[in-house]
Design a protein that fits this description.
mainly alpha; Growth Hormone, Chain: A; two-stranded antiparallel ribbon; about 0% strand; disordered N terminus; disordered C terminus
Length: about 240
């Protein structure tokens, strides 16, 4: 007789968490672009284009402005992956919660930095964004990105084409999921653009609030999983975390 092993979906993969992270991602991107000198926190493709233009015109200040955030975005991905490998079996905090704590701390400090320190601010935001996009990559079992839209747009249109052929309601729900995440990212950008006029550099603290809510929600799911695992037979308890 074989026992079925039921996998537990992490709170990090629920739509509510993805929604909060998407709003935060849109806000972060508009914050660095509008308030911090025209640098993209998430869309490193744009930074690479502007970096290339700086190289062509020998504008070394522009080269520095765009190169450093690109570099630290790459480093942020590496650090998030290292945290996943080192802390995936941690008991008190899920490794993704640790990533969120680091991100919150970095963004909170950014709110204190004056305009003359934009390079440092953009570097810190890019590093935080990279950690987020590397750590939170699925929602309801589907691949997504919370800090940019190009992949979500591609997935939405691909799913829409499949639905047009099959009329599968599951595929239609996938279309709605991606369109919702894209809209939430845009909402975050609109919210950030509006609040910058009132809060200035401290607008980034709204992102900290959204991330803290996501951090707290993960405790709820982790608590439910702990109780479920405690009541399960030893042979069906999960080994480690994704």
């Amino acid at each position: 007789m074989r026992l079925a092993i039921h996998s537990h979906k992490q709170m990090s993969e629920y739509f509510l968490t993805a929604a909060l992270l998407s709003v935060s991602g849109g806000l972060q991107d508009v914050y660095t672009y509008i308030a911090r000198g025209g640098v993209f926190a998430n869309a490193q493709t744009g930074n690479i284009i502007l970096l290339s233009q700086g190289l062509c015109t020998q504008n070394w200040l522009a080269v520095l402005r765009y190169f450093v955030p690109i570099l630290f975005f790459a480093l942020g991905i590496a650090v998030a992956e290292e945290i996943r490998q080192s802390c995936r079996n941690a008991q008190r905090l899920h490794w993704r919660q640790l990533v969120l704590l680091i991100e919150i701390l970095l963004l909170f400090c950014v709110g204190f930095l004056p305009e003359k320190w934009n390079l440092l601010a953009n570097t810190m935001v890019s590093f935080a964004c990279a950690m987020q996009v590397q750590s939170f990559r699925k929602v309801n079992g589907y691949v997504f990105a919370s800090t940019m839209c190009i992949g979500n747009i591609r997935s939405a249109m691909e799913s829409l084409c499949i639905y047009h052929r099959t009329h599968d309601k599951t595929v239609w729900n996938k279309v709605l999921l991606y369109l919702s995440l894209i809209s939430l990212f845009a909402l975050g950008a609109a919210l950030g653009g509006h609040l910058i006029e009132r809060l200035g550099m401290r607008t980034i603290w709204i992102s900290c609030l959204l991330l803290f809510i996501s951090f707290s929600l993960m405790f709820l799911r982790e608590d439910l999983q702990t109780k479920s695992n405690a009541n399960a037979p030893a042979c069906v308890k999960p080994h480690g975390r994704s």
